[in-house]
Design a protein that fits this description.
- By secondary structure, this protein is of the alpha/beta class.
- The protein is built from 12 helices and 12 strands.
Length: 387
């Protein structure tokens, strides 16, 4: 069996363009899908997929690890976030092919399910463009959580830190605390609550904010500061009573090594569409297991990334919970021939061959590439804000 073509299909989904990767073979009807979505770097990723395809046309797609090593090592320049994202999409598609050819779901090829169900968590939003100037009141977070409860979710994540405000302001911190208070009031103790700070805080502000949240029993506190300053994450982790989660911006196992060695977090969050694909997510998870750390793959992307993450989750012993997006665009499921049901709070093990999904390319073509919304975010004083 040989790879005959590697193509990209870009689907605009409002805030982001989903970059779907299709690997075709010389076997009639046998192809695989992956996802390489990377916001604001769409053209770079598409170009990187094209660059990598030069190496791979004519290769046997079943040699997944061999091809991963080729993509990683056979060009002089090692990959950053763009190249690793392109590799991730191709890697997922290769696993999809391997599963389809074997007639087994990918999680079976990874060793088989280690759990009977995989827990999912929902998004409440906050801190996004529509919330930039505090237009969303704290009470809205409680209302959004109630909707998640109705859908069957028992865990939710929110981002109460607005882009345009300096978190060091006591007023901003108190308002963010009120958002959490409204969520806990709506949920009681029935729901686990996670907060995502998007690395908008300094370590000192993250600690100040976190100490005000101690009574709300957070499930985790995500990206309190930039992950490349590992010692700062250690400082935050040691100062607060709840788990720290981070890792969505790291790619490859090498970038996770110091994080693990210093136990700078309790939950690592590799992204299957960024970190190097299913193959690399599994290696990162195995590394985390040796340090008794949990894994919860980051996944705000499209449906192929979701399917890939679910397979990794079912085959990984130290997997905690899975992030899903269900309502970013109303036609999300229309591009799938057999949609995934991720709106009930948990999923059973996949049973269909490969990743278990296929793309309706005619429907996907109705949403062609558009430039992403420019996230030129500034604080009120005109200084540049971290998105």
């Amino acid at each position: 069996m040989k790879i005959t073509a590697i193509k990209t299909l870009v689907v605009n989904a409002r805030m982001r363009n989903w970059i779907l990767v299709k690997v075709e073979t010389d076997q009639p009807g046998l192809y695989g899908w992956g996802e390489a979505t990377l916001e604001w770097k769409t053209k770079g990723v598409v170009g990187s997929v094209e660059d990598l395809s030069v190496l791979l046309i004519g290769q046997d797609p079943r040699r997944v690890e061999h091809i991963w090593q080729m993509m990683h090592r056979q060009y002089f320049w090692r990959g950053g976030i763009v190249t690793m994202t392109a590799m991730s999409g191709i890697d997922q598609a290769l696993w999809d092919i391997k599963g389809k050819e074997a007639g087994k779901p990918v999680c079976e090829l990874l060793g088989g399910p280690v759990r009977d169900t995989l827990r999912l968590y929902d998004h409440l939003g906050g801190g996004l463009m529509e919330d930039i100037y505090l237009t969303v009141e704290p009470e809205v977070f409680g209302e959004r959580l109630a909707v998640s409860l109705e859908k069957g979710f028992t865990a939710v994540k929110a981002m109460p830190i607005p882009v345009a405000e300096l978190i060091e302001s006591p007023a901003v911190i108190r308002r963010a605390v009120r958002c959490v208070e409204e969520m806990r009031k709506a949920a009681g103790d029935k729901v686990d609550i996670m907060l995502d700070l998007h690395a908008r805080t300094t370590p000192a502000a993250a600690i100040q904010f976190g100490r005000l949240l101690s009574e709300y029993n957070l499930y985790w506190y995500e990206e309190p500061c930039w992950p490349e300053h590992v010692d700062a994450l250690v400082e935050v982790s040691r100062a607060l009573p709840f788990p720290i989660a981070t890792g969505e911006r790291l790619v490859g196992r090498w970038q996770f090594r110091e994080l693990l060695e210093k136990r700078a977090c309790a939950i690592v969050q590799p992204d299957v569409s960024h970190c190097g694909g299913i193959s690399e997510a599994r290696r990162i998870a195995a590394m985390a297991e040796t340090y008794s750390l949990a894994v919860a793959c980051h996944n705000p992307q499209g449906p192929v990334s979701t399917a890939s993450s679910i397979h990794v989750g079912f085959a990984t012993p130290n997997y905690l919970i899975q992030e899903v997006v269900r309502a970013d665009v109303p036609w999300r499921n229309d591009i799938l021939i057999d949609p995934l049901d991720v709106a009930r709070g948990s999923v059973p093990p996949p049973t269909k061959p490969g990743l278990g999904i296929d793309i309706n390319e005619a429907e996907a073509a109705k949403h062609p590439f558009e430039p992403e919304v420019t996230m030129d975010c500034f604080h009120r004083d005109g200084s540049v804000a971290d998105w």
